[in-house]
Design brief:
The protein is of the alpha+beta class and about 350 residues long. It contains 10 helices and 11 strands. It has helices at about 10-15, 30-55, 120-135, 150-160, 180-185, 215-240, 265-275, 290-295, 300-310, 325-350; strands at about 65-70, 95-105, 110-115, 140-145, 165-170, 190-195, 200-205, 210-215, 255-260, 260-265, 280-285. The strands form 2 sheets. The chain has a 9-stranded mixed β-sheet, with helices on both faces.
């Protein structure tokens, strides 16, 4: 999986080119049988690797980055696990799995779980949180997740259970969450510079803590892009009339329709401008405001895991016809990724 990712058939041919004891006896059937075997033992493997890494690197599980993706498979029929759903790969015609991965602060992928392809992100997060509690017996940890996973049920899940409550840093939906859009973003306050392209301010609303993050460079780009849309919208209305713009999704949020006439909705323009270059976080931690923003930006660690799983190790597409061998295929890719991260850590240690 690490050196020559591809199908099991290709792997069985590749091992014949490698001079290693025992490789001459490997055949395609062994790859298929091992995929099924890995499906049955992969949870024990993850737990043992987690315990080993804690001892080896003296780490504590204090921050966990969680995100989901989809993995499609080439088959027409659905099963208990392979379902059609929202496809991040733009293949809604194919059944898929939903893969949820948890990565620690050092970049180690510590656990993963698969779900039927029609599982919502919030439900996947809930089950992975339960997995972390039960399998790793952790005490307290900060969960970092993207805005697609946030809901009141998610927050209750993270904070409402003993003896292992979770702290959280979660991204907010700026347009859809009424409190964020109408209260948090409208609140005045001075931004604190954190980095070249990052400034933050804290907003408290009814005991809930929000952190508004702003990138000045992106804010300028957003403003310029909106102004270009508005210029074209005004010209189209003037030259072609209302029929040319009604139904155009690119113009919809800036249009004001009244009694058959259309015009630019200046209030909507003003609301949209409040979002320029910004993202909003909510957290129950007592971390400094700047650290909350930097922690969330570190979510790239799990995104990198997905890139390497889906590209470098070619975990997709999945050609296996059985569910257990498909799970074993993902487990093999996960182990290969763990090996790659381990090798990177050892090389960096030697260089230092």
């Amino acid at each position: 999986r690490l050196c020559a990712p591809g199908s099991d058939l290709a792997g069985s041919e590749w091992v014949r080119t490698v001079a290693a004891p025992g490789f001459e006896g490997l055949a395609l059937q062994h790859f298929y049988r091992t995929a099924g075997f890995l499906a049955g033992v992969r949870q024990d493997l993850e737990t043992k690797l987690f315990r080993r890494d804690l001892n080896l690197f003296n780490q504590t599980l204090d921050v966990v980055f969680i995100d989901t993706t989809s993995l499609y498979c080439y088959r027409d029929t659905e099963t208990q696990w392979r379902k059609r759903g929202y496809s991040r790969d733009h293949r809604p015609d194919l059944p898929q799995w939903v893969l949820c991965v948890a990565v620690n602060a050092q970049g180690w992928p510590i656990a993963w779980e698969i779900f039927p392809g029609n599982t919502a992100d919030q439900k996947a997060l809930a089950q992975v949180v339960a997995l972390l509690r039960q399998r790793f017996q952790i005490r307290r940890v900060t969960v970092v997740a993207d805005r697609g996973m946030i809901s009141q049920d998610t927050i209750q899940l993270l904070t409402g259970h003993e003896p292992a409550p979770f702290d959280y840093v979660l991204g907010c939906r700026m347009r859809r969450q009424k409190e964020v859009n109408e209260v948090v973003l409208a609140r005045a306050g001075r931004y604190q510079p954190v980095d070249v392209n990052l400034e933050v301010k804290e907003v408290q609303v009814g005991g809930r803590r929000y952190v508004v993050c702003r990138n000045p460079v992106e804010a300028q780009k957003d403003a310029a892009a909106r102004e270009a849309i508005l210029d074209k919208l005004r010209q189209t209305i003037e030259k072609q009339g209302a029929k040319a713009v009604i139904g155009n999704r690119g113009y919809a949020r800036f249009l004001k329709v009244a009694k058959g006439s259309v015009s630019v909705d200046e209030a909507a323009v003003k609301r949209d401008a409040r979002l320029d270059g910004k993202f909003v976080l909510t957290t129950n931690t007592d971390l400094p405001t700047a650290e909350v923003a930097q922690t969330y930006k570190s979510l790239w660690r799990v995104e990198r895991t997905f890139r390497e799983q889906k590209s470098t190790l070619e975990v997709r597409p999945i050609y296996h016809q059985r569910d257990d061998t498909s799970i074993g295929h993902i487990a093999a890719s996960f182990l290969a990724l763990r090996l790659e991260v381990d090798l990177q850590q050892r090389l960096e240690a030697r260089e230092n």
